[in-house]
Amino acid sequence: MEEGKKVEPLGFGYPALVRPGRTRVGWVGIGVMGGAMATRLLAAGFTVTAYARTSVKADALVAAGASVADSPASVAAASDVVFTMVSDPGDVRAVVLDRASGALAGLRPGGVLVDCTSSSPSLAREIAAAARSTGCHAVDAPVSGGDAGARDGTLAILAGGDEAVVAWLAPLFAHLGTPTHMGPPGSGQSSKIANQMAVAGAVVGLSESLAFADAAGLDARLFLDAVSKGAAGSRVMDIFGTRAVNRDFASGPGSARYIIKDLGMALEIGDGQEEEDEATALPGAALFRQMFSAMVANGDGDLCVRGLITVIECLSGIHK
Ligand SMILES: NC(=O)c1ccc[n+]([C@@H]2O[C@H](COP(=O)([O-])OP(=O)(O)OC[C@H]3O[C@@H](n4cnc5c(N)ncnc54)[C@H](OP(=O)(O)O)[C@@H]3O)[C@@H](O)[C@H]2O)c1
Q1: pLDDT in tens, 247-276
Q2: Which of 11, 124, 204, 248 could form a disulfide with 243 if both were Cys (CB 3.0 to 4.6 A apart)?
Q3: What domains can you pick out in the chain, each with its CATH number?
Q4: pLDDT digits (tens, 9 = 90+) for 67-108
Q5: Cα pseudo-dihedral 86, 90, 95, 97, rounded to 10
Q6: Is the pTM of this model over 0.85?
Q7: Distance 30 CA to ligand 1 centre (A)
Q8: Is 146 left (phi over 0), alpha (psi -120 to 50) or beta?
Q9: Catalytic residue among 5, 6, 57, 192
């Protein structure tokens, strides 16, 4: 959608247009992803009011021109659109639905909540219903593309909710990446969980293949370069391969802890534990989750998922 184009029906006549200088953006959760994404919106000319639980994390954003508020509700009271980018569903519930301090408590009718956290589809549906009951709108919009995608504005944005509201958000999403409307509330989160299963499988495959190549005495860099041009070549191989070979596990994107959370949600849904869900067999997700749990058990839970090769090596009695 073109910047400034009016989209009907938001129904409340407010806020009418998304436009830098006019639309007031709130941002809750200034971590690796949220900090970079909020910075992009600020640089694009939007007014940004932020809430960071650990206040020092908002310092760079404030230096770039953002204001801070002392709670998600205060952020929302100063905003037309409130983005949340926190850790997990429990945190989303706290920052959005807490009756006193949550964003929904401060948002005026017609306001829009956008949760970018990788969270649960059923919570996204609950938030959408709660927003509707107060005359507001909610979109679940988890992202894929890591810290680099957040900094560069090249994230895949998986949006669930009212299509008109997702279209209305386009001038904001345009600075963050490429949005796709996946369907009704919760569809964005279901898409992200499915995405994480595919990423986890690819990381496991890559890790085993690199450990095997190394044990076979191959030159790992030459191996990666050669196979990346064939059927094994993938985005996961491009992003993680060389850094895994270089044993650079510390920097982003995506920690073992976070993919365990996402695979855990997949398994809960697969087991039919969430409302109205049919059971789905997810044997790969169960195995992958166990493998990433081994990273946590080894004290490496905060490392990037590409550190999984260390688990394969441990199982093989190799300690590098
Ligand atoms: N990192 C990636 O590459 C990546 C890629 C795609 C999606 N994701 C997903 O995006 C989300 C955020 O990832 P991230 O890497 O940005 O994580 P992060 O660096 O850990 O940031 C999360 C931020 O949320 C804040 N927070 C958590 N719970 C809160 C609460 N109850 N109230 C207020 N603030 C709260 C944390 O505050 P404190 O600083 O006070 O702890 C932290 O600043 C996760 O769901 C993750 O799975 C991550």
Answers
A1: 999 977 889 999 999 999 999 999 887 766
A2: 248
A3: 24-185 (3.40.50.720), 191-315 (1.10.1040.10)
A4: 999 999 999 999 999 999 999 999 999 999 999 999 999 999
A5: 140
A6: yes
A7: 7
A8: left
A9: 192
